[in-house]
Write a structure and sequence with these properties.
heterodimer, A: 524 residues, alpha/beta, Spore Coat Polysaccharide Biosynthesis Protein SpsA, Chain A, eight-stranded mixed beta sheet, 55% helix, 9% strand, B: 603 residues, five-stranded mixed beta sheet, 30 helices, elongated
């Protein structure tokens, strides 16, 4: 916002003494720190240090110090502006403050609903990037580039055999496969299990240095320094990618030089383990088959998934690797890549992962994702004008706000509106009734019912198209699933404001489907 | 019937120039017919027509506007009419109806054409069915007056079309649109609730025939049922919220079942009698030749098509759903039909329009039979070509001529005698009361029950937000307790004559409470006393004196205040009750404390 400041100050500059101008600037920077990004924030200049916390980015682009002055002041000013707007509305329309707030929430819901519908509609007729089998077969081994596959593991002895089996079945010449497995030094059990499972000799095991933070993105950064491939992909412990996925990615990168990132379609191999996995799978089917194509068609910044994303290694290098302090490093990476101009496409290839099948595990995983969303929001909104410059337009900034902080906010608002609904049913309170003026009541109801119907139905359609019609029977539980989402978001918000828990990585336990002898899908 | 129909299976509404031609010509026919009905003074004849129009208007013009005004009738018609009924001139004349419904009719014609063309593979047959449909005088009449019959028929046809489309293409979008059509149909008439089930069965039949797995069957039924059940869920939730029970649409005091208990029910608990009454009504609505021919051709088709004709019979199943519904309703006793041929016709028709609901089924059966006959003859060689042509012309000519002669007789020669000569024609008293109000009304609120508000609401010129009706809940309850403090005019049923039915006498609360009451008579003078209804006007001087005696300022008594619209239901009523209590008086019918008591007393 330096330019705005200059524009405001320059006409009067000759009248002021230099020290007065300096003082004015300091006062403005004090009050509006988010308008004055430091030099280091204005460009990505990664420092690929070995050691320490393996943070290659400047601190302004990292979630290391989360609640900085910039974001606090920005939040304060936004709150003040909203308060003025609300006060104006109260004064003009003679509504109570509560009624104005509820009205604003209803409008927010309506806006968000409209946005999602718009994205979905635009996504129709925009298929993922497809590579035919003929194209794959036409590839000659000697023409293939070196491909780096990073597999960050921690206490994954349960699924070691599955990892070895899944990644060994990748159709790619071993001499061109730069497969790096990262392990903590103390995790000897996983290493032993991998060896027992017949880990191929060309896999490299990288023992992570014993430094903080102990997070997946840090291990990715450690491995990234060792990457030799032209392209890089990461696979989590439990992932089973399509065997030809690497070759498809090579073809796609070769035929689309403008594309730097390929997001594959994710699926669950234990989708029918229980109701929770079924609903989780429906959510994924909707996201990857219905929503993501729309985001891609509209050229919006996209929060990527945590694995099975293929990068041009060079793009990753320009982006500065992952933020070791961000617990949703994938989401952050998606936005950061967009900021440096890297383009994403969806690749028509599946990666199958394990859906968290117990409530505790699911809640922990979702809490982490939502906490990461909060961190990503905070990091990227520290300097809104800088964000706009990097994303290219306010339209893209709005899309980012809707997709990342908007998701968190809506989930939290779901809790509030649910409490109001339950309280009204329980008490028939006339106060709650008075909060909903007639237009707000209608708008809220229409958006609530239309949203419930529309998104549930699209989840079902996506599931059906993935040949899982037998899972549709769980659809009555969808509102309950959304409540769980709200609960996880509430938990994530609570953790985000507590310093001790801000960067805590709640690891997802893998292999529960194997324990329950549900691995027949994989076997098949 | 052709299984290799050369139709392009796309579902955007306007598919080809012929769609446009059909749509625009149907609009023109509908528009011309609306004008004809208007100049013939038949646009608003029946109580239901006034009532639908009034409800549509009350959504925006009421003491308590909004969804609460919808009541327990299927609401789609009212929602469609509402934007047009909001305009005074369209509302008072009833012309809101053709604005809302003629485009619906035109859409129905296009979809019927596409359905028949798809089933037979012959565009000519599609055009014949569409023409026969469009020429039916009752289809046209109910598309230009505020009634839900043609609206339902069109939605039934659209549902059948999307079912057909899904059968042929297995596209999920078609299944979704089938569900949406079914939901809209069930929001148009309760017959749509049977369509919901019948279409579900038809979907299951198709999957069963293709040997789909149980999972696919279940999933497909969910994908169909989820949108299709929205209408039913809306009806249940609405009843629960506004009527206290999800079954309010069936058990409310002014519902069809309650009303018809006081009538003679000749078909109750007799299946054959139910069929006979419905067929007799169909004779008037569709023309007796078609009523006779349709079952015969259906039997012929059942014999000649047998296996390999699942699509036709599944479509027929959907189209038959209202027929089955109405037979069931007649059997149960929640519906009754009076037609001249059958006891107990008393000179006036009643519910004869139920006979129209299987018209699309009859049309489709005849044209499919015609198409089959043509195909069967053509396959025998070129010598049979003239015979094939004759068969096609015979079936086509039969349908079009049937509709044409019916049109000529009913719409032109008799000018809708059946409709004008119906038990549902608005009573003369309502017209008189509306006329008096038109002449004498100078402001102030009018208290009455909704059942009497129909013609009065539409033609009296009284703003609807000045009417106190049941749907205005607290206002109605409070005005019912002390009418003279709230309403300048009162309309009530005349319970002292044999005209109102026993059921009506039990449910018209204003008359129940105040007819013959001396306190009421002290404040109100009768302006009109008919055999069915009464109109009273308040003597405001007496209320002013009473307010003075109770120590109330004029602006504390709604009827004396110069305000318009509603009063404060929380405080105004309580102040009045408190003042009466201070004076040691009350109302014999209501307790003198608590605003909530009268509300519950009226439920």
């Amino acid at each position: 916002m330096e330019r705005l400041y200059q524009a405001l100050i320059t006409p009067f500059a000759h009248a002021w003494a230099p020290h007065a101008r300096m003082r004015l600037r300091r006062a403005a920077a004090y009050l509006f720190p988010f308008l004055f990004p430091p030099q280091e924030a204005q460009r990505y200049a990664p420092t690929y240090q070995r050691g320490g916390d393996y943070l290659f980015l400047s601190h302004t682009h990292s979630a290391r110090a989360l609640w900085t002055r910039e974001i606090i002041m920005l939040a304060a000013w936004c709150t003040a502006a909203l308060a003025v707007l609300f006060a104006g509305a109260v004064w003009v329309w003679d509504f109570s403050v509560g009624a104005v707030v509820i009205g604003a929430i209803a409008l927010l819901y309506f806006g968000y609903f409209s946005f999602k519908v718009w994205v979905i509609v635009r996504g129709r007729g925009h298929p993922p990037l497809a590579v035919s089998q003929a194209q794959v077969r036409a590839l000659r081994d000697e023409e293939l580039p070196v491909y780096t596959v990073i597999v960050p593991l921690l206490r994954e002895a349960e699924v070691a055999a599955q990892i070895v089996r899944a990644l060994s079945s990748l159709d790619y010449p071993p001499e061109k496969l730069d497969l790096i497995v990262t392990l903590e030094e103390y995790d000897t059990e996983t290493l032993a299990a991998l060896r027992r499972a017949g880990m191929p000799p060309h896999w490299r095991v990288l023992i992570l240095p014993d430094t903080l933070p102990k997070s997946k993105p840090k291990s990715l950064n450690v491995a990234f320094l060792e990457a030799r491939g032209e392209y890089t992909v990461l696979y989590d412990a439990e992932i089973i990618p399509d065997p030809d996925q690497l070759k498809k990615a090579c073809c796609a990168f070769a035929t689309h030089p403008e594309v730097s990132v390929l997001q594959t379609r994710l699926d669950h191999y234990n989708a029918d383990q229980n109701a929770l996995t079924a609903l989780f799978n429906a959510e994924f089917a909707f996201h990857y088959d219905v929503f993501l194509p729309g985001l891609e068609a509209l050229h919006f910044p996209v929060p990527l998934s945590g694995h099975s994303v293929h990068f041009r290694t060079d793009a990753l290098r320009r982006a500065g690797g992952w933020d070791p302090y961000n617990v949703a490093e994938d989401c952050d990476m998606g936005i950061r890549l967009f900021r440096i101009g890297a383009r994403m496409r969806v690749l028509d290839s599946f990666s199958r992962e394990e859906a968290a099948s117990d409530l505790g595990g699911w809640l922990r995983q979702r809490t982490r994702w939502m906490k990461g969303f909060i961190q990503t929001s905070v990091v990227h909104l520290r300097y809104p004008f800088l964000l706009k410059r990097d994303l290219g337009s306010w339209r893209n900034v709005a899309a980012f706000i809707a997709l990342v902080p908007g998701t968190v906010l809506l989930n939290l608002l779901n809790i509030i509106t649910l409490i109001l609904l339950v309280a009204w049913f329980a008490t028939s309170s006339s106060y709650i009734q008075s909060l909903y003026s007639l237009p707000v009541l209608y708008l809220s109801n229409v958006v609530a019912f239309a949203g419930l119907f529309f998104f549930t139905y699209l989840n079902l359609v996506a599931l059906f198209r993935r040949s899982r019609p037998h899972l549709l029977r769980y659809f009555p539980l969808t509102p309950l699933y959304w409540l769980l989402l709200a609960a996880a978001t509430g938990r994530a918000s609570w953790q985000s404001v507590r310093k001790a828990q801000q960067h805590v990585w709640e690891k997802t336990t893998h292999g529960t489907h194997l324990v329950r002898d549900k691995h027949k899908h994989y076997e098949q | 019937m052709s299984n290799n129909a050369s139709t392009t299976l796309r579902y955007p509404f306007v598919r080809a120039p012929l769609d446009w031609v059909l749509f625009l010509s149907s609009l023109a026919v509908g528009g011309a017919f609306a004008w004809y009905v208007y100049v013939s003074d038949r646009l608003l004849v029946m109580v239901d027509q006034y009532s639908h129009l009034a409800i549509a208007r009350q959504l925006t013009d009421s003491l308590t506007p909004g969804i609460s005004q919808l009541g327990f009738w299927p609401p789609l018609l009212h929602l469609l009419l509402a934007p047009f009924a909001a305009f005074d001139v369209l509302f008072r004349t009833g012309i809101a109806a053709p604005f809302a419904l003629v485009p619906v009719l035109a859409a129905g014609v296009v979809f019927l054409y596409r359905l028949v063309e798809g089933l037979t593979g012959k565009p000519v047959m599609g055009a014949v069915a569409a023409s026969a449909f469009l020429l039916n005088p009752y289809v046209l009449y109910y598309a230009v007056t505020p009634m839900s019959d043609t609206l339902f028929l069109v939605l039934l046809i659209i549902a059948a079309y999307f079912f057909y489309h899904w059968w042929r293409t297995a596209r999920l979008m078609s299944l979704f649109l089938l569900g949406v059509s079914v939901t809209l149909a069930s929001l148009a008439r309760f017959e749509g609730l049977f369509l919901l089930a019948f279409a579900g069965v038809a979907v299951a039949v198709r999957l069963w025939r293709t040997r789909a797995s149980y999972g696919t069957l279940e999933g497909t039924l969910i994908l169909y049922g989820f949108p299709a059940a929205v209408g039913l869920v809306f009806i249940l939730v609405y009843g629960w919220v506004f009527g206290g029970t999800p079954w309010a649409f069936m058990v409310n005091e002014w519902g069809a079942y309650a009303q018809q208990r006081s009538l003679t029910l000749p078909a109750e608990h007799e299946v054959l009698a139910s069929v006979r009454y419905l067929m007799a009504a169909s004779g008037y609505m569709m023309g007796m030749p078609l009523v006779v021919a349709a079952p015969i051709v259906f039997l012929i088709l059942a014999w000649v098509l047998r296996r390999g004709s699942g699509l036709f019979f599944s479509v027929a199943l959907l189209l038959a759903s209202p027929l089955v519904f109405d037979i069931a309703a007649l059997f149960q006793g929640s519906a009754v039909i009076y037609v001249p041929e059958l006891y107990p016709f008393d000179g006036r028709f009643f519910n004869e329009r139920y006979g129209l609901y299987w018209f699309p089924l009859a049309l489709v059966a005849v044209v499919v039979c015609g198409a089959w006959a043509v195909d069967a003859l053509r396959t025998r060689g070129w010598r049979f070509e003239p015979l094939a042509l004759f068969a096609g012309a015979f079936f086509s000519g039969f349908l079009v001529a049937n509709s044409y002669f019916l049109f000529a007789r009913v719409a032109c020669a008799q000018c809708f005698d059946t409709v004008s000569n119906s038990r549902q024609v608005s009573p003369e008293d309502h017209a008189r009361i509306a006329e008096i109000l038109r002449r004498e009304y100078r402001g102030g609120r009018v208290l009455m029950t909704r059942a009497l508000a129909n013609e009065v609401a539409v033609t009296s010129g009284v703003p609807l937000k000045e009417m106190i009706l049941e749907a205005n809940e607290h206002y109605y309850a409070q005005a019912l307790a002390f009418p003279w403090f709230f309403a300048e005019w009162v309309v009530m049923q005349n319970n002292t004559t044999p005209y109102p039915s026993s059921w009506a006498k039990e449910n018209e609360k204003v008359a129940l409470l105040w007819q013959g009451n001396t306190q009421f008579r002290y404040y109100y003078r009768p302006v009109f006393e008919g055999t069915a209804s009464l109109l009273f006007k308040l003597d405001k001087e007496k209320v002013a004196r009473e307010a003075q005696r109770l120590g109330l300022a004029a602006d504390e008594v709604p009827v004396l205040a110069q305000d318009r619209g509603g009063w404060d239901v929380r405080y105004t009523y309580q102040r009045l009750v408190d003042a009466l209590a201070r004076a040691g008086e009350g109302n014999a019918a209501f307790p003198t404390s608590g605003a909530a008591a009268p509300v519950s007393a009226t439920r």
